[in-house]
Every structure is written in C-alpha cells, then in structure tokens.
Design a protein that fits this description.
Helix content is 50%, strand content 10%. It has 443 residues and is an alpha+beta fold. Helix 7 runs antiparallel to helix 13. The longest helix has 32 residues. The N terminus is likely disordered. Bound molecules: protoporphyrin IX containing FE. The site of protoporphyrin IX containing FE (HEM) has 25 residues, from helix 13 and helix 17.
Length: 443
C-alpha cells in the first residue's frame, strides 16, 4: 500500500494533499524582462519555494520537481501516472523509443533492451575500443604536429563513431560524419521550431532529407550486404525484429536508428567536453585518477568513472525531464491534478546544498569515498531512473571510460579559450567552440 496516496480501509475518503506552493506572477515577469535563461527561473523558484513548486509561463501551471523522494515517486514508483508528453524530438526521431509511449514503447524497449545489458553489451565492447583507438591515433597526430583541435568536435566525432560502429558494424567515414551533422542541426533547432509537427518538419526539411538518405543507405546495406568487420550490429537486430513483428516497418527502423544516433552521441560528447573543461580548472583531478592504479587496473578505471560521474552531477546532459500527470495524485504530500505539466530537473537536484555539500565544487572523490554521496536514488540521476531510464547507460559509461583510459595518460591539453556560459537547450552544453593544443605525447 502506498502511504502517500491511500487512506487504507478507513472510510475517510482519499488522503488530501496540500496545494503546491506557486511562484507569484511578478517573479516570472521580472525574469522575462531580464531575458534570463529558463534554468535561472527554475533555480529561483526552487530556492524560494522548495523541491516541489509551481510557476506559470502562460495560463497553464508547471510543477518543478527537484525533491529526491518526489523524483523517485514520479519516475520509478508511479511512472504510469506521469507520462511523457508528445515529444518535441518527434520531428527528428519520429516514433523512436525515446518518444514512444504505451504498449508501442514496451515492445520497442523489449527489442533493444537485451543489447544494452550484461552479455548483450559485450558485442559492442570491441567496437567502442576501436573508436577510442581511432581517436587516440588522431590525437597522437595533433600532438606531433602541434595542430590545434576542437575538443567538442573531437568528442562528437568519437561518440558518433562508437554508436555508428555498434549500429552498422562499420567505422564512421568522413562523408557519413559530414551528413550526420544534420542530426545536431535539427536537435539544436528543436526548441525554436513551430509546435505543429508538419510545420516544424518543413522548417528543417533539408536536414531531415540528409538524415533520411544516410538512414536509408545504412538500412539497405545492412539488409543486403555482408555484415561489417565486427559482425552484425544493432541495425541488424532491428531488421531481424521486422521478420516477426509487422510494426517494424522501414519507417520505424529509420526512427530507431536516428533515435540511437541522436540520443547516443550528443549526450556522451557533451559530457566528455565538460569533463575536459572541468579538468582544465582542476588539473590535480587528472593526476589523482591516474595515480589511483596502473594502466588497465580496476582502481584506475573506477577513478576515471568517478570523473565521469562528477561531471554528470554538475552537467547532466539531459538537464530537464518533462512529464505530464495522467491522474490526480498526492506527490510527497502535495496535490497534483491530472493534466499538470511536470518538469523534473536533475541539474538542480544535483546542485542542492542539502544533498551535496559544496555543490558547485568539482570533487570526483564524492563518488569514491564510502559516504561521499547521498544514497537516495532520486538524489543523483543523470540517466533517469525507473522503466524509462536511459537505455544506453552502460554503453555511455563504457565508451567514456575507455576513451579516457586511452587519452588521459598520454596527453595534457591547453585550451586557447573556453566558453564562459552554458546553453540550456535539449541538452546542457558549452556555449561556443573549445579550441585547444595538445602537449607532447608521453611514452
Ligand atoms: C552521458 C550520456 C547519456 C546521458 C546523460 C543520457 C541520459 C538519458 C536520460 C536522462 C534518459 C531518460 C529521459 C527521460 O526519462 O525523460 C535517457 C533515455 C534514453 N537514452 Fe540516454 N543518455 C546518455 C547516453 C545514451 C546512449 C549512449 C544511448 C544509446 C546508445 C542512449 C539512448 C537512450 C534511449 C534510447 C533513451 C530512451 C529510453 C526509453 O524511453 O525507454 N543514451 N537518456
């Protein structure tokens, strides 16, 4: 029985909740007049009204949720009461897993799930390592010649190569990489596109055509040609699913392919870029991670993973998770009516000083010391929690760790300039280029 919502067998009727505290309209007006970022408004609403608080951008109310128990209630305990709304990203990913709902989502998740856990992941480890080696080889060249590089672009290239190899069994070639910049272009444009899906698709028609051409070519190659050097990939799993499940039309296979490309590279790439920017400010963290153990040791791997987790604490790339209440509910003692828009914000939960002492400070030891971090699952959730948590969690951690194991011991990096702000779009990413030069390689 759920003590938050049930009155047990006593005849008192359903438990009554308190109204969610709501920010006064003046607060929103003042934020608007200053042209602030959404994160600034959310931060102020949280500071003044706590971990469950409402505000209005228009006539409808949005409830901001940062309290760990409420996060767990929505995402993990009662996900059926809080669903994803019609997803903006549908313009790009159609009916792909990230946007799908109901029984379609269940079926689609079942098809892909086994590839991303335990033994399923083993098939992709070699491909991830090859992508890391390719990047390390390129960096070796930059270091020898003194040529500068853009860290953000390098990380995108690596993450795209890792997922492309896992999908198709082939390394990413320059032509495909160029065409797939259209995925980033559409993703970046999503927040500003018209709300009507047809109008939105028209606005980015040229980029969508480039993406569709790459997808069609990859699907045809996977269907007719031999598997790549690493054997069949995720795309083959989707094509095989079509033999038993008629809903796997070419359109749905395209949507899943684009979903895995989009969800599976920008997130990892921005995390790795933030990590390098943070190491620039905290060079001792790199030394500590490398000193934790020798090459290939479990201790070094854990220390590198702690760098990744601390980066994801400060910059969880999916920084807001929108939901909509499907039924009246009592959320941590507050009344939430059916139809209410909810914004869960890991970015703010991860910076709550009551959960994370000195929250703005980059300290990877939080993820190494026994009591270094709060144990509540709703206190740290860069990959979400519950049934709709990130499908690619293990993939993302693995690729990040393997790449850093290749790069960190060999190269130091000097940024020519660093972005001074973050962009809070679909993901939170550095605002601007990240040019750098590598120090001489260490042998
Ligand atoms: C650091 C990297 C990553 C982060 C921070 C991240 C974060 C997330 C989060 C927070 C969600 C849940 C969204 C919600 O509940 O509204 C999610 C979902 C998802 N992610 Fe990731 N992700 C990352 C990497 C990846 C990778 C590498 C892949 C694929 C290889 C991937 C594929 C997906 C998919 C398919 C979903 C939708 C799952 C579903 O709805 O059933 N992600 N991700």
């Amino acid at each position: 029985m759920d003590p938050e919502t049930s009155s047990g067998s006593l005849p008192y009727g359903p438990a009554a909740g308190r109204p969610v505290p709501e920010a006064e309209p003046e607060l929103v007006q003042s934020w608007r007049s200053q042209g602030g970022e959404l994160v600034e408004l959310l931060s102020e609403v949280r500071r003044r009204f706590g971990g469950i608080a409402a505000f209005r951008l228009g006539p409808a109310r949005t409830v901001l949720v940062t309290d760990p128990q409420a996060v767990q209630h929505i995402l993990a305990r009662h996900p059926e009461r809080y669903v994803k709304r019609s997803h903006r990203a549908r313009v790009l990913i159609g009916d792909g897993l990230l946007a799908a709902t109901g029984t379609a989502w269940q079926r689609q998740r079942r098809v892909l799930q086994s590839q991303f856990t335990g033994t399923g992941m083993r098939r992709y480890e070699h491909r991830i390592t090859e992508a890391a080696r390719t990047t390390a080889g390129r960096w070796g060249g930059y270091a020898r010649t003194g040529q500068s590089l853009d860290v953000g672009r390098e990380m995108r290239r690596f993450a795209l190569d890792a997922i492309w190899r896992s999908l198709t069994g082939h390394p990413l070639d320059d032509g495909t990489e160029r065409e797939l910049t259209a995925v980033n272009a559409v993703a970046a444009a999503l927040p500003t596109l018209p709300t009507d899906v047809t109008d939105a698709r028209d606005a980015v028609a040229a980029d969508l055509a480039r993406i569709d051409a790459v997808a069609q070519h990859a699907i045809e190659a996977a269907r007719s040609g031999p598997a790549g050097p690493d054997g069949p990939g995720l795309l083959h799993v989707l094509i095989d699913a079509a033999t038993e499940r008629p809903e796997y039309t070419d359109r749905l296979i395209r949507d899943e392919l684009v979903t895995l490309l989009a969800a599976g590279h920008e997130t990892t790439a921005t995390t790795l870029t933030w990590l390098y920017l943070l190491l620039d400010r905290h060079p001792a963290a790199r030394e500590q991670a490398l000193a934790a153990g020798g090459e290939g040791s479990a201790q070094r791997r854990q220390a590198i993973q702690a760098l990744v987790h601390e980066t994801l604490r400060l910059y969880p790339s999916a920084w807001i998770l929108p939901r909509q209440a499907t039924a009246d509910d009592i959320l941590a003692g507050y009344t939430v009516e059916a139809g209410t828009d909810i914004l869960i914000c890991p970015y703010l939960t991860h910076r709550d000083p009551e959960l994370w002492p000195g929250p703005e400070h980059f300290d990877p030891q939080r993820f190494r010391a026994p009591d270094g971090r709060p144990a509540h699952p709703g206190a740290y959730f860069p990959f979400g929690i519950g049934p709709r948590a990130c499908l690619g969690l293990q993939f993302a951690l693995r690729e990040s760790t393997v790449l850093l194991e290749h790069l960190l011991p060999v190269h130091t990096l000097a940024f020519h300039s660093t972005p001074t702000k973050a962009v809070y779009g679909l993901t939170v990413r550095p605002d601007g280029p990240t040019p750098a030069t590598l120090g001489p390689p260490r042998t």
